[in-house]
Each structure stands twice: as C-alpha cells, then as structure tokens.
Write a structure and sequence with these properties.
The protein has 280 residues and is α+β, with helices and mostly antiparallel strands. It is built from five helices and 20 strands. The chain has a single domain, classed as Acid Proteases (Cathepsin D, subunit A, domain 1, Beta Barrel), CATH 2.40.70. The protein has helices at 16-22, 114-121, 161-164, 197-200, 263-279, and strands at 30-35, 50-54, 62-70, 79-81, 84-87, 90-92, 100-103, 110-112, 128-130, 138-141, 148-151, 157-159, 165-168, 173-176, 178-180, 193-195, 204-209, 212-219, 244-248, 254-258. A six-stranded antiparallel sheet has the order 13-14-10-9-19-20. It has a five-stranded antiparallel sheet with strand order 2-1-17-18-3, covered by helices on one side. A hairpin with a 7-residue loop joins strand 9 (128-130) and strand 10. The radius of gyration is 19 Å and the shape is globular. Residues 227-253 are annotated as: Disordered. Pfam families: Asp.
C-alpha cells in the first residue's frame, strides 16, 4: 500500500489513502504515524510496529502543537527542505543544492546527500567509512553517543542516540544510521535526503493532503523510549556467517573488519534502496 500521491504511480492507480480522501471518506485530509522502537529483543517475530491513524491524529500519542511545513513542490513524494542538521553539537551547513528531503516511513535509516555525508561523520571522533559490501555506511566507536538533530524550517528535532546505532561491525565499532544516499545509484538521489524511521521514531508525524504539508510533534510523555533496555549492540547476528569488509579512515588507511553483527543492518540498507526504486 503506497502512501505517496497518485502522480507517482507507474500503473496510474490511486493509493488507498488518497482514494478515501477524494471520496470524502476521511474526517480530515491527512494520516498520521507513531512508530514503535524495539531494542535488544532479537526473538520478536511479530509485534505491533506503531499506530497509523487515517483521517486524523491521535492526541494520546503526542503533546503540544503539530508543526506543519508545506511541501516544496507539487504533491508526489512527501518532500520538505532540510534547513539545518546538527551533529555532536555542531551545525552542518546544508546548501540549497542538497536540501530536498523525502519523508518516508518505508525507509529504515536516513540517507544523506553524497556531498554532505563525510562532513556529517567527520563530527564523530573515531568514525570511519565502510567499503566493500558495506559501501555507503559509516562506523563509529560503540562507546560514543552520537547526537543528531534535524530541522525543516522550525523546531530542531532530536534523534535518540539509540536510533543512531545500527549494530556492531567489530567488538568496539558500531554502524551508524546515516548512510550515503548515492549508493542507491539513481539519477538525482545522491543529492537528496531520504528521511526514514531513524528520524520518524522520535516524533509524531502527520501527512496532510490539503494544503499539502508534513507535520511533526513531540511524542507524548513515556513514548520516547520503547520496550527493551539499551544495548550498544542492538542488532543480533543471524545463523549464516557474514562477510568480511574493510574500513577506511578519513586519512585513507584501511583495516579489516569482521561484519558478523552488521549483516542484518545491511539487509535494512538494501531494503531502503529497493523501496525507493519501487516508488520511482
């Protein structure tokens, strides 16, 4: 079930939510999400992933007002402009050539423009770029708390350090949740942001058809942390052996790295890329 607009459909069909909206079946011209976070629970096979509300919002899931930002272009994807990003307390300049962001619940991580990705991870001491099978991802010392916030013209929305840690690369290095969008290798995507669940788990999100906008609100008290206890190595290894890759430092040196625990994480990255292709 696609949640973009009908203009994206290669089959010239209208998405379910838009059919309801155009048919006057929704109380309000919008839908909203609360996404659950699960930490250190590798045995979960099936569990609620959050709450989708069609035709309104659920006031028990957020507090304060909803901050709406109009879409930057005619409705297709839900696209906003990234006005600022802060990493480890330092503001990173976002040029107008690289500020378009697709807000997408189908994306697991956050894709950053190729032109910005190295500058983002340069703010995290000890971070390195991964290559080989894991090109596009960065790793950082697991004992480092990576703090990131993003703004789309108003509030600076914080991303929990828990969500910035995808899983272990070695015994002391963990993969980060912001990857190089250029690995998708599709024209134009390398200069865009793909803002997925790493960010969206930290806010209540509202997608409004008329006037076209995306809104964010602070989660209700008690919802910012979800079931499970903090584990710096949240991704658990699967039953199959994972490949070995190398890491590249900012100075260009490389070292071998066992990718045992990160196998599941890279599956998510492939899923991100595949989902984006399906939408095109």
């Amino acid at each position: 079930m696609g949640l973009g607009f009908a203009t994206l459909s290669a089959l010239h069909t209208t998405p379910f939510w838009e059919t309801l909206y155009l048919g006057g079946q929704l109380s309000e011209p919008l839908f909203s999400f609360y996404l659950e976070r699960y930490i250190n629970q590798p045995l979960i096979n099936s569990s609620p992933g959050g709450i989708l509300t069609l035709g309104g919002t659920n006031s028990s899931l957020y507090q304060g007002s909803i901050e709406y930002t109009n879409l930057t272009s005619a409705p297709s994807y839900w696209i906003l402009n990234v006005s600022s990003i802060t990493v480890q307390g330092k503001a990173i300049s976002v040029p107008t050539s690289s500020n378009l962001a697709v807000i997408d619940t189908a994306n697991t991580l956050i894709g950053a423009p190729t032109s910005m990705i190295s500058g983002i991870w340069a703010q995290v001491p000890g971070s390195v770029a991964l290559d080989g099978n894991y090109t596009g991802l960065y790793a950082f010392p697991c004992n480092t708390s990576v703090t990131v916030s993003m703004s789309f013209g108003g509030t600076d929305w914080d991303i929990s350090p828990v969500d910035m840690n995808v899983g272990t690369v070695t015994s002391d290095m963990c993969a980060g949740a912001i990857f190089d969008a250029g690995v998708i290798n599709d024209g134009g995507v390398s200069d865009m942001w793909l803002v997925g669940d790493t960010f969206l788990k930290n806010v209540y999100s509202v997608f409004r058809a008329e006037p076209p906008a995306v809104g964010f609100a602070q989660l209700a008290s008690g919802l910012s942390s979800s079931p499970g206890t903090f584990d710096p190595n949240p991704v658990q290894p699967g039953s199959l052996p994972a490949p070995t890759t190398t890491t590249t430092t900012s100075g260009g040196s490389k070292r071998a790295a066992s990718a045992y625990n990160i196998a599941g994480s890279l599956t998510l990255l492939v899923t991100v890329s595949a989902c984006f292709f399906l939408l095109l």
